[in-house]
Structure formats: C-alpha cells, structure tokens
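Internal tracking record. Fields below are filled automatically when a chain is submitted to the structure queue. Please do not edit lines marked as system-generated. If the sequence contains nonstandard residues, flag them in the REMARKS field before resubmitting.
Queue: standard
Priority: normal
Entity type: single polypeptide chain
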Amino acid sequence: MRLREKEITDRNEIEELLKSKNVCHFAMCDGAFPYVLPTTYGYADGHLYIHSSKKGRKIEVLKENNRVCFTVDTGHELVQGPLETSCKSTIKFKSVLGTGRAIFVEDPEEKRKAMNIIMTQVFGKADFKYSEEGLRDMAIIRVDIESITGKKNGY
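SYSTEM-GENERATED OUTPUT FOLLOWS
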C-alpha cells in the first residue's frame, strides 16, 4: 500500500467492516476483461459467502477461472478543501480489498450454514427455512480469502 498511514492494520477492524455491510463488489476474470458485480454476501470465519442461481455468466466465468477479487466500503463523505484548490478535497471512507478463490459449495449442510450467514448479515436474523429442493437448486460460492487489506481516510 502506497500510503501506509491510511492502512488498516488491525484484523478485527477489517473483519468488523466485512461483517457490517450488505453489499460487496465481486470481481472475476472473464477472459481478457474483468467482470464485476455488486452482490449481497455474508462473512464469517475468514470466508465470504455469496448466493446465486446455478446458471448465468457469473457461474460460467467462475468455472473457467476461480480467481476473484472483492471490495467492501463505507463512508463516502465528501470533504471539500479550500475553494482556491480542488487538490485538498478528499473523501472520508473505510474499505477492504481481498483476493481469493471461489469454491462452489455442494454439501447441503454447508449450504444451509452459508445461507444463515448471508441472511443474518443482510436481514439481521437467521431463522429461515430452506427446503431440500431449494438447497439443491441454489449455488453457494465460498470465497477462500488469500489476501486482504484495509484502508481508511478521515477516521
């Protein structure tokens, strides 16, 4: 990281940010071009979990290359600098950037656990019921995180 004074070095602060948000931007390698989607997610035990249909571009891309990148951010409070120069204006924010491998979860119990993690993070509760058919027909993508960094400005 170029600006070390903005780096979040406390792993707990990074994890709290990951646990407190509902949407991440999930990037994949689609041949020669990146493919990025905003998606709901859940974070627990060093893994990101994403719910998906078993069909679609995201699934096809991940079958070809399971390397992914994700980012979660918060804040976005604009801080205007002196009027005579725009160079001193900035944004107050916190962000996390991670890379890893996307793994398709097949075990029904792990799928159920992942859905509970996602639903708790997104809706604040996990007392949902999942049918066997529903679990079978959904894709759960677990991101095994390989690297993660955090950055903040204005905090």
